[in-house]
Amino acid sequence: MTALHDSGLSTEERRYRKLIENIHDSVTVVNLDGSTIWTAAGARGDLGYESNFWDGADLFSLVHPDDLHIIQALQEQILLTPDTPVRGEVRLQRPDGGFSYTGFSAVNRIDDPDIGGVVITARNIESEIQARLAQADRELELQKAATQQSDFIAGLSHEMRSPLHTILGLSELLETSPGIPEESRHHISSINRESEVLRRMIDQLLDFSKINAGRMELVCEAFSPANVADYAGEGLRELAASKGLRFSVHVDPAVPLAVLGDEFRLRQILVNLLSNATKYTEEGSVALHVEPGDGDHLRFAVADTGPGIPPGAVATLFEPYSQARTTDSSKGTGLGLAIAKHLTELMGGSLSLSTSPAGTTFTAEIPFQHARRKTDFARVAAPIPVGKGRVLVVDDSAVNLTLAVSQLERLGYEAETASSGAQALELLSVEKFDVVLMDWHMPGLDGLETTRRYRRSEVSDRELPIIAMTASAMSGDRERCLAAGMSDYLSKPVSKNDLAAMVGRWASPDDQPGSAEAPEVAEPDMTRVDNLVEELGDIDLVKSVIETFLSELPQWRGTFRDSLDDEDYDGARRAVHTLKSTAALLGAQHLSTTCASIEQMFREDPDAAADRAEEFNNAADGAERELTYMLQQLDSTTPEETTP
Q1: What is the largest CA-CA distance in the chain?
Q2: Which residue has the higher pLDDT, 554 or 644?
Q3: Is residue 369 located within the same domain as residue 398?
Q4: Are the C-beta atoms of residues 380 and 227 closer than 8 Å to each other?
């Protein structure tokens, strides 16, 4: 019944009755079949029904047919969980035949002798639902707008990357060509430097559009944190030197040799932080410190001696387009720190800062799983192979073909070209290549379809590396290339260093020098190797890493010698730079310090650095003897002796 007579009720009972009848939500007691046992006097008035309508009404008959399954699903839950509120939303019919959303909470009080039913508290939530739907529509429109913006920037990025690839590549080749007047070389260097700035701005805009559109994705591969830190710092040393800044990278020996994660995105974080520190520091130093953090985290701290960040700017510093000072707009887009923070958090880490008038430190704490497989360690510890073999370059742009051939030949490769997918398939059917560089967007057969057809053909070499070299750089583009049968992906613009790293990773040199028997040497320090064995728990894995390094060492010595003969001081510097970090990891400390010293001298006085070739060769000879001796010691070690 709608309301019990007040006669016979105590004052307290009448007070509770009036309280229930005047609350905003309606309160109803029903049987499990939906029939009403009791309801407050004002119940369901928000649906337009008279209060006496509820005397014995079948509540379930008012539920929208499409929502009955909700009631049925909740009935069992209500029975099984007495005294526990069960919540839901359904549409109830109004007197005019329409439906309004009603939110309810139902509690099983059947066993309570004073109630004997299910207590339902409900209210009309139509306005809330409509507001919710309107918000969803707005979010959908915003998402569509972000996607459209992302697609627009992706298209614009593609169109800008192609000519920028040509500008960067040709200026790089000109800068290292013999016979260029010093004044012209200076102008070419300026073109190269400003083109790199433009490339970074394009990359940042593209990355930010990916973030807005929810398209930023991560990959998981084995890499060396020390090598990434070194590589990230390499690109900023020249800018720091031009400003008279001391620039350094310090990697704690306790940092793992190899971890699993997204190497490219970590490098991007460090480059953004180092670039930010170098741009805003006018005197003093910039330093990157890499060390173990808590648990499986690594800590990357970039410290500078700049003017610090104004207190009012700290709160918004990581927001897009934010600048610490109004005068900073000429130094960048204001996206670098926002992207670095997003990438750090996407990788499960955090980015923080501490600042004072004496300088600023940005600290990224990022979790990485330690690598365990033998192939992972062999991959990250071995130097990139020296150029050897034949490379097929497929591109419909004559300028791009000329540029790629020039870069490859300077790296020591023999290059052949094809200007279409059809021509590439014809060449692949009759000639042997070690690597294929494949453009994606070509008229007729594009790079993806060309790759698919080759992989399905009878003459296909399943092991032939096909690398996409394309201006397409949106999220998902790499996956599309891999799904088509390609082996790897390289986005334009591509520098000679980028090309050397990618082709070197996949090329298979025809011959590998055998290891000679080591002469008698003084016993070297086995500490680093012992630490590696303890860290990896696999003596065979450590032996494999050392053997790989020894097999590649003669090739890098040859690169150093040939670069000096060609007066290619940049190539010679890269050779000692690569050997430096790997030698240190394996305990060949004398070679590492010699390489570091020669590398620094190449920046200050290349001619003097070239005179140290004999010193480099002696250090390499010593490292070869040391590491060969270490292998002999490891061969004589029993597995039980290596168990931690």
Answers
A1: 114
A2: 554
A3: no
A4: yes
Which of helix, strand or coil describes residue 120? strand
Does 158 map to a domain? no
Sign of the CA dihedral with 501 first, then 506, 511, and 517 last:
positive
Express each pLDDT in 132-185 by its tens digit. Answer: 888 888 888 877 776 666 666 666 666 677 777 778 778 877 877 777 887 787
Residues 122/104, Cβ–Cβ less than 8 Å: yes
CA pair distance 396, 400, nearest whole angstrom: 8
Tokens representing 65? 């047919």
> Which residue range forms the structural domain that includes residue 392?
382-499
In a domain, 261, yes or no: yes
Continuous H helices in 60-125: 68-80
Q: Work out whether strand 359-367 and strand 350-356 pair parallel, antiparallel, or are unpaired.
A: antiparallel
My answer on whether 559 and 532 are in the same domain is yes
Q: What is the DSSP letter of 87?
A: E
Beta-carbon count within 10 A of 256 CB: 19
- Do residues 570 and 451 share a domain? no
Q: State which amino acid sits at residue 23.
A: I
**33: exposed, middle or buried (Cβ count in 10 Å: 0-12, 13-18, 19+):** exposed
Upstream peptide bond of 493 is cis (omega within 30 degrees of 0): yes
Distance from C-alpha of 552 to C-alpha of 622, rounded to nearest angstrom: 15
Structure tokens at 286: 């910039």
- Pairing state between β 369-370 and 259-261: antiparallel
Residues 4/39, Cβ–Cβ less than 8 Å = no
> Is residue 613's pLDDT more than 90?
no
CA distance linking residue 296 with residue 392, whole number of Å: 42
